[in-house]
Amino acid sequence: MTIARRVHLAARPFGLPDTSTWEVRDTELAEPGDGEVLVRVTHLSLDPAMRGWLNDVRSYVPPVGIGEVMRAFGAAVVVESRDPAFSPGDAVAGILGVTDHAVVRGDQLTPIDLDVAPATTWLGALGMPGMTAWFGLFDVAKAQPGDTVVVSGAAGAVGSVVGQLAKAHGCRVIGIAGGAEKCAWLTDELGFDAAIDYREGPVHRALRAVAPDGVDVYFDNVGGEMLDSVLRTLRLRARIAICGAISTYNATEPPPGPAHYMSLLVNRASMAGFLVFDFEDRYPEAVADISARIADGSLVAREHVVDGGVDAFADALLMLFSGANTGKLVLAV
Amino acid sequence: MTIARRVHLAARPFGLPDTSTWEVRDTELAEPGDGEVLVRVTHLSLDPAMRGWLNDVRSYVPPVGIGEVMRAFGAAVVVESRDPAFSPGDAVAGILGVTDHAVVRGDQLTPIDLDVAPATTWLGALGMPGMTAWFGLFDVAKAQPGDTVVVSGAAGAVGSVVGQLAKAHGCRVIGIAGGAEKCAWLTDELGFDAAIDYREGPVHRALRAVAPDGVDVYFDNVGGEMLDSVLRTLRLRARIAICGAISTYNATEPPPGPAHYMSLLVNRASMAGFLVFDFEDRYPEAVADISARIADGSLVAREHVVDGGVDAFADALLMLFSGANTGKLVLAV
User: Enoyl reductase (ER) domain: which residues (chains A, B) (predicted)?
Assistant: First the structure.
């Protein structure tokens, strides 16, 4: 008999989630049935997209229902398996929910190799964020050697990988992040050509100073004003990949749109949204590339690990929106 | 000795151009030099883009300078030629300026065949607007048979051609225009599947009614609120071609951006700006296609011709912004 400690959605938040949003409950799990696996969760991924899953709107996945366990990616160890593909002790990843134990279908789990990288990295540079960076940069934004690439949320899970991949690809890379410490990390540790602290002043002015010829690729994780600022600095035939808009996810009134979108016309530029799930068939290609870079030390995979288990979930999630994390934010369970 | 009556830019307008914007002056033209041609202008094209040329901002062409003759496309007859490619009596088109006579370099002129269509049509369906429709629809928005195509400014020079080309290509076509009369013209005369009068209520609601499965292609001539409305109705992998934003050209404060741009992400959709001039090498391909359709009666090329010569230019231009024209607005000189 396994008791799972799980975080349920108690009420839809208006603005930032708070204590009324969540309810932590202990629930006895059913024994795994045929094809199912009981896992012990070791790490949970905290993602900006989680905020979107709380809204009762049509989107690319259904919203989390009131009373349901909060949706989350996680890494886990198999405890008991009724799927021949898995044995106790195996390390796996998948959509497990915010819980310390889960019973999931084996076909929903992916084995992860802890000899290649620790579980936390399988939630970061080798997980969804790394895949998002790779396909967004190469397939959506079509970054080419010589391009000036700008990425916002540059010290985050996705942005830090985008910048390093672009740099390795022969691009000139400018990161936008909040605070001097993050900016120093980008240029000193990750090899970005420049970093802009958006708290220090208008981003378009800072961009014009470091990229006077304009921007070829913008990988947008932040949205809002930042997208509007970068639109003002586009170069001919620039490509914008819309990955997210963390600055707007907790807005309590409709955030303004990018007023300078007509820069797309003047510069014959384009802006495309994407979802990493559409590239699922090709994940192995990106995992192979990124893991090789981690192995030879040319790509820094950094995770910001918060302790405290599922009880710490509510507070840890808020760190994403205050910009408290550097690198991939992970909750140790 | 030729006296040209020309319209000069007297002052940059703030908002709608008015009498202080223009000055009409008679000027003696120099004799054409080697390679130059003297033409008598018969028709001038009135284009929404003209408003943009009046602003002192970096764009795809330099702004018209204060005191300069207003830039305009036009159709003309050759009076005297020092370019062996042209003879007196030849019909030509090109950037002639708002004038009744002009001396231009022969290599800046294109011969037009008045047996194929009248001069007014060479400024409309067979001119820039037609080229814009053709390349925007097929090359930028990549319309495919079966697509639901929405076009705004649908009763205008570009929109009316976009809709007819899309229909002939096997698309389902919805036009957005202002007023019942224009809407009736779109469905009854041009064969659009549906027309939405944007003055009658929120466009996204009307669109959901006529296109409950959503929009595959949006060809945007209007911008502003209309773009934002259509963003709310996109289908998976929709393509938006940004051709213009006539609703914002006379704005006296920065118009809001499209707040629903994150629909691009949810729907993995894209939005691309374009300029017809980039397709110049391929104009003959589009001219051949459109002129064949005009010849066999399957494409209606309609021009709204205003009399009064260059002195009527100032008032005629405003008709574009009040939506007074149906089809291509042309000034007879």
Answer: 15-331
Contact A96, A39 (CB under 8 A): yes
Six-digit token string for A227: 């997208």
Instruction: Provide the CA B106 distance to its chain's centre, in angstroms.
Output: 24
Q: Which residues neighbour B296 within 8 Å (Cβ) at sequence distance 6 or greater?
A: none
Give mean pLDDT, residues A321-333. Answer: 96
ipTM: 0.94
What does the angle CA A83 – CA A88 – CA A89 come to, to the nearest 5 degrees?
Answer: 130
How confident is the model over A270-284, as a mean pLDDT?
97
Instruction: Round to whole Å and give the CA distance between B261 and B272.
Output: 13
Q: Identify the contact set of chain B against chain A, taking CB-CB distances under 8 A.
A: 58-60, 223, 228, 242-245, 248, 254-275, 278
Q: Is A12 helix (H, G, I), strand (E, B) or coil?
A: coil
A275: which chain B residues are within 8 Å (Cβ-Cβ)? Answer: 265, 268
- Helices B283-295 and B128-135, packing angle to 10 deg: 100
A116 class by beta-carbon count within 10 Å (0-12 exposed, 13-18 middle, 19+ buried): middle
List, in order of start, the domains of chain B with CATH numbers: 2-124+302-332 (3.90.180.10), 128-277 (3.40.50.720)
Within 8 A by CB and 6+ apart from B280, the residues are none
> pLDDT tens digits for B295-310?
999 999 999 999 999 9
* Residues in chain B closer than 8 A to A269 (CB atoms): 272-273
Does the distance separating the beta carbons of A242 and B262 come in below 8 Å?
yes
Residues with Cβ within 8 Å of residue A52, at least 6 apart in sequence? A59, A249
